[in-house]
Please model this.
Amino acid sequence: MSDVNVTIRDNGPYLVQGAITIKDQAGNEIEATGPVVAFCRCGQSAGKPFCDGAHAKCGFDGS
Model:
């Protein structure tokens, strides 16, 4: 089993690094591009579940 690291960015996304499988609500796999995946925490991303930087525009406060 490989290591997976999750980092919570202040007022930003969850950053997941490592080998993971992402599935949608129907069980279909979503391909992760790149070595780090950023998941939205603010709920404003147009590309959910992935972060698109909307947290900076909406003033998201992750505290």
Observations:
- The chain has a mean pLDDT of 93.
- Residues 40 and 51 are 4 Å apart (CA to CA).
